[in-house]
């Protein structure tokens, strides 16, 4: 025997199993069609262990423990992010080194600017990265269960 309140609750839960709202563009989409991206939340601890090898050699091993969330984003936003990543990579890793190498007419400049491009792309990725507000994403049902 269901009263209206219970039915409404059931409807809401069924809705949350089926649908989520994309935290980037706000589009309501099917959970089954979501693209899941992992987003780092907070660094909990970071420690560096020194291991000694032979002949006085040292190995430093840094372990970072951080919390992360699986965010559901829609296919369109996933595609846009993919295109953006590829464009930045192409510009910084191939086009920029080619231009510098061509202007300087040297292979050394070309290879040096590949390293420069790697650093540059790291900076650009940090700048353009759009972090999702986790609380907002929870409300939108855009947090997927953790994966191992
Ligand atoms: Zn979207």
How would you describe this protein?
There is one protein chain. This protein has 148 residues and is an alpha+beta fold. The chain has one domain (4-144). The chain contains four helices and five strands, in the order αββββαααβ. It has helices at residues 4-18, 75-104, 107-128, 134-139; strands spanning 19-21, 28-30, 35-52, 58-73, 143-144. A three-stranded antiparallel β-sheet has the order 3-4-5. A hairpin with a 6-residue loop joins strand 1 (19-21) and strand 2. Helix 2 runs antiparallel to helix 3 (107-128). The longest helix has 30 residues, at 75-104. The chain starts with a helix and ends with a strand. The model has no long low-confidence stretch (mean pLDDT 91). Zinc ion is lined by residues 22, 24-25, 27, 73-74, 76-77.
Please state the CA-atom Rg, rounded to the nearest Å: 23 Å
What average pLDDT do the residues reach?
91
Order of helical and strand elements? HEEEEHHHE
Shape descriptor reads flat
């Amino acid at each position: 025997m269901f009263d209206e309140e219970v039915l409404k609750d059931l409807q809401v839960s069924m809705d949350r199993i089926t649908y989520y709202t994309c935290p980037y563009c706000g589009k309501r989409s099917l959970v089954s069609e979501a693209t899941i991206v992992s987003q780092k939340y907070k660094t909990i601890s970071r420690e560096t262990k020194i291991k000694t090898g032979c002949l006085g050699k040292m190995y430093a091993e840094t372990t970072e423990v951080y919390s992360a969330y699986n965010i559901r984003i829609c296919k369109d936003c996933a595609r846009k992010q993919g295109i953006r990543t590829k464009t930045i990579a192409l510009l910084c890793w191939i086009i920029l080194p080619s231009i510098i190498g061509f202007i300087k007419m040297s292979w050394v400049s070309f290879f040096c600017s590949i390293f420069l491009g790697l650093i540059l792309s790291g900076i650009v990725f940090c700048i353009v990265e759009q972090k999702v507000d986790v609380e907002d994403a929870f409300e939108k049902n855009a947090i997927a269960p953790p994966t191992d």
